[in-house]
Amino acid sequence: MAAIPLLLGTALAGFLAFLAGIFEDSESNAGSASNPNSQVQLAPQIGNRHRYFNKAISGEPPANALWATTAATIAYLLTAHFGGDAFSMLVASIIGAAASTLLLCAYGVLSHISRIASMKNFEQTLYWDSLLTPLPLDAAFGFLTALMLTLLAFAAHSLLGNPFSVPLLAFFFGITIGAIGSSTGDIYYGAERLYQHYIFGSGIPISVQGDIDVKGEYGYRNSVDTPYFTMRFGGLVTGLAFGILIFLDAWSRLFTFAGVWTSVIVVSVLVLIILIFIYLLEVYTRKRYGRYTED
Amino acid sequence: MKEIQIHTLFGAALLSGIAGILLIGHGISIGIVFLWLPFLSAANSVRGMAKYGLGTGNASIGYWGTAVGATSAFVSSLPFSCRSTPLLYVAAVVAISLVVGLATGVLADKVIRMKIPRIELNSAVIAVSTALITAGSLLILGSNYGLYPFIYIIITLAVLHPYNASTGAGENQKRTLMLALVEACMTTLAIGIVAMLVSGSAIPISDVVAIVVVSACGLLVAVVAWYRLVKSDIYEIRWTGYSPAEH
User: Per-residue pLDDT for B175 more than 50?
Assistant: First the structure.
């Protein structure tokens, strides 16, 4: 029987990771980061002048690593000043996440303005309102992501007994969540939402890249509506993927049947089960839907 | 318009970076201003490599180069003390980052065959420049291992972001480098603020306050200069509206 802090830590880590996934995907979609970023960037070049917020900071992994690491570093340093109990961790994490949100806003504004300044040939106007309206929303999601990842790093370090320091754990979590968000969640925005006038699931051939929807259900599309749409599927799927990853990884701490090798054995078995499941799913899908056809 | 050459900017950044580290090492913390030039040099080399249509590879170049640079600075701080023997430390940082940066560039060119012109030179420039910045940051923040991820990632973003943010047909070196200066000031400001929180900091609190004040002033000046360039480059700035062609 595992100790209570370990069980509690496993549940808490999975829960925090699930929430972090939802917030991270919404944050990246509110700012058209990573994959959608290229689509929005290409749009004016083929005559689709838009009103999206194009937050070209970098790929999602390094950007999220920066928000999470900054928040966790500040929280880690402040916790020592505040006394080190659970309450001080929570307060320090909130202050750290708020500080990293300021950095996110600064980078977001600099990126959006710079990208549009480089679009002079294609007559793309800088509309202040299409930057300043989604920015607080983006910042709010960014704050929540950084907060969840910082709390997750504290949970992994103190409850689960992870040997790495809190900022290093937050760095790993930031890179991981960015990779999952950009591979899992963004497809829904970058390949479906922006290309809603093409047949669902048809992908984005090179010939249609940049031909995005600039108008929506009512008037011009903006980046505030985007997370409202993507949270119904892309955000939850990102949360599910990251949540399962962290939750299953925490299992390696619950057992002690083979000494120090326990975690290696547990994680290897889990990876094997997941691989078999994915293989069977792909075989089933290929049999069920057949080859891709032009029409 | 004539562009600044990689060699010129790197030479200036190398001298400026070494001067900055020695000044900070001797207790003159506002020597941090000399670390801004290495940011420009590294961002310029990211631009030099990513300009050949790398697109999403832009970020990868940033963190590959900074990984080499930051690791060189971290490794050099193990045998050589950055406080008691600053000259030896700087020499080790420059030598290790130059060799490893060149080696990774040659590997990327000859083994992986990435076919990017001048990849060896640019990768060495990014490595040395970021190594100098990391060494300066270590002098301010002290050798606390818990802070290494923060030092690494905040320098990475400041180096890869200027070109990534300015990408487009109307991009030019002047505006990209000005954005690099804005982000260099922002980064030293953030490092200064974090240094305030470090208990038993490597340098006295008055010096840290000086770093924060100098960085904030630099940030203000750089943002104004960058926004002027934006206004001269941009098609049109409006509070709100729609594309005129469609309404």
Answer: yes
